[in-house]
Design a protein that fits this description.
The chain is built from 13 helices and twelve strands. The protein is α/β, with parallel strands linked by helices. It has a single domain, classed as TIM Barrel (Alpha-Beta Barrel), CATH 3.20.20. The chain has an eight-stranded parallel β-sheet with strand order 6-3-2-1-12-11-9-7. The protein has a two-stranded antiparallel sheet with strand order 4-5. Helix 1 links the parallel strand 1 and strand 2. Helix 5 crosses helix 7. The mean pLDDT is 92.
Length: 344
């Protein structure tokens, strides 16, 4: 299959980017806050991507909610995942609003012709700087029902789910955007706790894709999970029976640096079992990989990633006219405002 998801530098599509996106190894594009001014501009940017690229692309974003929400103006201010368990009094309410948040997030993105928002976060615990309140809870048994409800909401909207960051990023302090964290815990502790949300949701067929962590689990392997055949082939594929798409986390992050140059990182992640690689904020690195990564996909692999394309088509105005959107928009905006007040 096409192997790379890349970023754009600004709010309009540049000619160099048209050429990059048309490369046969490019599977999609990921959008960031720097690519967004307002809804009309975003709509035009995505329209240009679709029109100027000859093969189908996945258009993706991180629109989880809370502090990780790339598009804000004109979209619902979604609550952080931790807010559901912390602020809502009953399990039923927590699960209901987790599902509605996921449905609304996915529906708003799909209305902009975006295929995937990389969610949900299945990491257990809040101590990691990179995760924090992106995690539903510090107890995996509390994470699971909320994450399952979130998956149900996304799937109901017509968007594929991506569980991250396998096998769990929540118990390291270091931020993998800045360095390579090491999780020194015994492997059985990781299996009994962090791995459980992934395993349970795979068993229930709720995850269509998974993104591994740039974390070294020292008691299991010397490589980060994103470049580890032990974690991706032996555990995720063989032991857990996952049959969906495996995305690498961003290979431009400092946490991936232990795997070498951008080409070496890409080769190692592919050899470990990743199907699609993210490489962001490194334009020279993207060009280097496209020029030097030799890969011959099978006919099946060439289109396998398209199973993750969005399933429904509707406009933002059509969505916002529904009573479900109106109710969810109002309630979730209030929940996030309360969360911000609680956090101070």
């Amino acid at each position: 299959m096409a192997k790379l998801i890349v970023d754009l530098q600004g709010t309009v599509l540049e000619q160099e980017e048209v050429e990059i996106l048309n490369h046969p190894l490019v599977a999609g594009v990921i959008l960031f806050t720097r690519n967004f001014v307002d809804i009309p501009q975003l709509r035009e940017l995505i329209k240009n991507i679709r029109q100027k690229v000859k093969h189908p692309l996945l258009i993706t974003v991180d629109q989880e909610g809370g502090r990780v929400q790339r598009f804000r103006q004109g979209f619902t201010q979604l609550p952080a995942m931790q807010a559901f368990a912390r602020l809502l009094p009953t399990v039923e309410e927590q699960q209901y609003w987790a599902k509605e948040s996921a449905w609304l997030m996915a529906a708003e993105m799909m209305a902009m012709d975006i295929d995937l928002s990389f969610a949900p976060v299945l990491d257990v615990g809040h101590q990691c700087k990179a995760i924090g309140d992106r995690s539903f809870h510090q107890d995996w048994q509390q994470v699971l029902p909320l994450a399952e409800a979130f998956c149900d909401g996304m799937l109901q909207a017509g968007m594929a789910t991506t569980g991250k960051h396998f096998p769990g990023h929540g118990h390291v302090v270091a931020d993998s955007h800045l360095e390579t964290p090491k999780d020194e815990r015994p492997i059985n502790q990781i299996f009994q706790q962090d791995l459980q949300p992934f395993q349970q949701l795979i068993d229930r067929n709720k995850l269509k894709a998974i993104m591994p962590a740039h974390v070294i689990y020292t008691q299991a392997d010397e490589r980060p999970a994103s470049g580890s055949a032990y974690w991706l082939k032996q555990i995720l594929r063989e032991q857990l029976g996952f049959k969906g798409i495996i995305f690498s986390d961003d290979l431009g992050m400092k946490g991936a640096g232990v795997m070498g140059s951008f080409v070496e990182r890409s080769r190692q992640a592919l050899a470990a079992g990743c199907d699609i690689l993210l490489l962001c904020n490194e334009r020279a690195g993207v060009i280097e990989v496209l020029d030097n990564l030799v890969y011959q996909p099978t006919e099946q692999e060439k289109t396998a990633y398209l199973q993750l394309a969005k399933r429904q088509h509707f406009s933002l105005s059509e969505l916002q006219a529904t009573s479900r959107w109106v109710n969810a928009h109002h309630s979730l905006t209030n929940l996030q405002q309360k969360w911000l007040e609680v956090k101070g």
